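Troubleshooting entry. Yesterday's outputs looked truncated, so today I'm pasting the complete records for two proteins to confirm everything comes through intact. If either block looks cut off, that's the bug. Protein one:
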Amino acid sequence: QVQLVESGGGLVQAGGSLRLSCAASGRTFSSIAMGWFRQALGKEREFVARVGRSGRSTSYADSVKGRFTISRDNAGSTVYLEMNSLTPEDTAVYYCAADVNGGLPWTLTEVATYDYWGQGTQVTVSS
């Protein structure tokens, strides 16, 4: 079992920044790849970013590349999502997720690859 708790969401103006955090417990954090997803009202949950176990490998959705940065602190069992140049299109509930078993390379952006999920944190970007 892995427990995930997100924090850091809120209301921000377009062009602003937010930093999301996700604290993990229940399993050796350095053995788990982590991802961030988001779900806007009325839309499906979509991949945002992923970081490998060591933190050296990262991947991003095209829509956030160059604006968002995912990172992790294995000593503190926390994964972060730094979000800059936010636009109203970034408004969504943001979820962190844990990939315990290690997904196949072509599945790493898929919801089904991730085994555990946090409760989500709301990010609202006003225009």
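Protein two, checking that the full record survives here as well:
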Amino acid sequence: QVQLAESGGGLVQAGGSLRLSCAASGRAPSGRAFSSYAMGWFRQAPGKEREFVSTSSWSGGSTYYADSVKGRFTISRDNAKNTVYLQMNSLKPEDSAVYYCAAGTIATQRPYDYTYWGQGTQVTVSS
């Protein structure tokens, strides 16, 4: 079983930066390794649905972003460390949410395409 653990959340003022990390451990029943999974970041604010933030193909060669974070957030991955990152700059109060990382077979914006999910890390941006 693949386990994902997010870290790096916290409280930051508007305009500030945070870097989230998502460390993967374990292995899928199929034997598939972390390096073969697409990795995505999603977020969910209170009273709202979970929304797509960013995703990376297994190699990191293809990345996609929600329009709301494009130009401010950067996804990257280090397959040697089984870790994916989300660098968040120029944070806004509306970025406040619980951020989740997820692993799936393809890099899409659809949450249901992802098989494994972390527990989430809280990001709060004060104005």
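Both blocks look complete. Sanity check on protein two: The mean pLDDT is 95.
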